[in-house]
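Note to self: keep these together.
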Amino acid sequence: MPDKDSDKIGLGQRQICRGAVKVLRHKKFHAASMREIASASGMSVGNLYNYIREKEDILFLIHETMFARIQECLEGVLRQQERPRDQLEAAIRELFHLACQMKQEAVIILTEAKSLSKRNLRNVLQRESAIVGILESIILRGLKDGSFHCDKPKLVANVIASNLWIMPLRGWNILPDHTETEVLDCLTAGHLGMLAGPAAGGQEVRPRP
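Structure:
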């Protein structure tokens, strides 16, 4: 049976995350006031503290919310696809679309990570490593069944994760000339090409239609 209190807390925390993202689009974390974040979240400052203990918790919540969505996305891919190549193609596609939806959260995470305490930063880095680990596990299964070829699967997994989150932030330079679909096709071909190895026979690896 669902825990109503947990559901209520989760709903309130997601509401705070959305409000905080609105504020942090225009202000640095340390310059943003709790009153501003509460107002953008549609609640009073007093109610805000029903869901958090201190201001830094808001920044940590943004990180946790994004990582939870990434993990949910990857777990869905693993359930729906069986072959490693299909899993990786689907993971690249779904993570790219998610990154395009969460550009503001990604910018906040990249620019405000320094505002986290050492403990929270360590937790965030562990969550990020876990996400990369899921991609690496897909690559390792592909190496085992012969569909992928590389000698540095962890490095390739890190490159894929980094590219998928950074590329949507470069829309100012890319999107005037290319669509998101073209960017995704390029990323997919490039990442699969990194894993093609000698089995590709020197031919270009293209994403499946």
